[in-house]
Amino acid sequence: MKNLLLSKLKIKIRMSKKKNLFIFDNFNYFNYEKNKSNLNISFNRVAFIFFLFLTLGFIFLLKVIYLGSLEKNIYKKNIAKSDNRSTVIDREGNIIAKSVILKNVGINPNLVIDKKRLLINLQLIFPNKDYKKIKKKINGKKFFYFQKKISQEKYDELILLGDKSIITEQKISRIYPHKNLFSHLIGQIDDDNNGISGIEKSLDYELKTMEEPLKLTLDTELQYLIREELNYFSDIFKNIGSATILMNVNNGEILSMVSLPDFNLNKREKIEDVNYINRASKGVYELGSVFKTFTIAAALNEDVIEPETEFKDLPKSTTCAGRPIREYDMKIPSNLTAEQILIRSGNIGSLRIAQKIGIEKFKSFLENIGVLNKIDFDIEEVGQPIPFRWGKCKLATSSFGHGITTTPLQLAKGYSIISNGGYNIKPTIIKKNFKEKEKKNKILNEGVSKKINLILRKIVSTKEGTANFANINGYEVGGKTGTAQKSVNGVYTKNKINTFVAIFPTSKPKYVLVVLLDEPKINKEYVYHYKDGSGWKQKGTPYNTAGWTSVEIAGKIIEKIGPILATKY
């Protein structure tokens, strides 16, 4: 019995062991499967999170790249359509106006972390700045520009500082390397990069859209030399303003146009003073005896006179509608040929010649050569001659340039036509490709120009003429003087407008040079020299006339630029 019980107990124990073993094995298996599942879940979670972050990062990167490219594209677009402007060059390729990227640096005091450190770093890069003032600004709260138009080298040094308070900006700006030299012709732009005067305004759209540089007919070297002479003589004759035009009489290309006073284009100054107008194109004046050339030319064109036609018993004065008309020189002879009337600049003789022409034909002639109506030009700053009603007295006074107005630019055009064979030309400062065989519009009869040029030459080369100071050996200069009282609000004053128009060489005219002085004064110390090699000289200005002021300047200019014209053109 006892043995039986022991046997049953052993069996039970074995079964229990097996059961325990079974249970143990099952437990281990269960736990293993559970851990494996947890590992998979953890790995999947990490992978999912990693993938999520990777995806989000990639999307963010794409967005940054897109926005960056968009910003870049917008920047380029803005430059192309609003900020950038085509470069302007002279006929030799020299830059007159150019758009450049300027870098400016400012400081935001609210973002400064270490003021002392910032000041030390700035001083190392910019040792010459006033840091007492800068320190006060940094201690403030307002943003301020630390340095404008900074160099690339300095710009890079500032960037390397990594200071968040240093704010940098890049801006498209228009620069003019020659400052004042072409101020009236090139003109200005406003803060929005829109042209407001000169070429910058008249060709605003073209300059914003064209890719190639805009080439002008102007010559920088000639412009500089002529402006230099005008400035020098402004100190001599104390005139309030002056103007010159140098133009090719055969194609209308303007090589130089100067008006004083001028201004620095880089400063974008608001020019409100009337003295800052472009006297060469916008100034409207009574120009006096320079009109007598037109009177003679019109008479020759109408075939009512020849240079040798005699006018006898010319009085020293006459009247028209009760108003006196006098000779400016009472020593002028009473018997003169048509040629001598122009050489001696006779008022009464010019009147007689105009009467032979008649009102309608004289008016038509002046209109044809472009001195009566507003001229079509490349810039908008163009003057409008004052209109008037024609009559016998107006015909009389207009014959010698009294009571009739025009601009120096129109004067240059008129003289170009009557000297170049009678062909119409359009003054321009924009370089064009002229066709050599292009048909020109001839508005004067054959032979008129040759006769006029011979007379203009005698005005300069003979003692009877009024422009001897322009008689330069080797250049065959011809021309006509004009001295006129300045009219202010319809009242004639003692102030004068002195003008000289030069044509050279007269045997085959190529250039016209206009020199105008606004209210010149006599200089008692200036020493005059004849330029024909005679050695004659005189100290002091005896008369405030064009022959003693404008002619002297023209002669000096031609002496300077003559060799350049001969070698370049």
In short:
The chain has 569 residues and is of the alpha+beta class. The chain folds into 2 domains: 88-215, Penicillin-binding protein 2a (Domain 2) (Alpha-Beta Complex), CATH 3.90.1310.10; 222-264 and 283-568, DD-peptidase/beta-lactamase superfamily (Beta-lactamase). The protein is 41% helix and 18% strand.
Give Rg in angstroms: 42 Å
Query: What is the oligomeric state here?
Result: single chain
The CATH H-level homologous superfamily of the largest domain: DD-peptidase/beta-lactamase superfamily
Shape: elongated
* CATH hierarchy class name of the largest domain: Alpha Beta
N- to C-terminal distance: 148 Å
Poorly predicted tracts of residues: 1-36, 66-81
Helix content: 40-55%
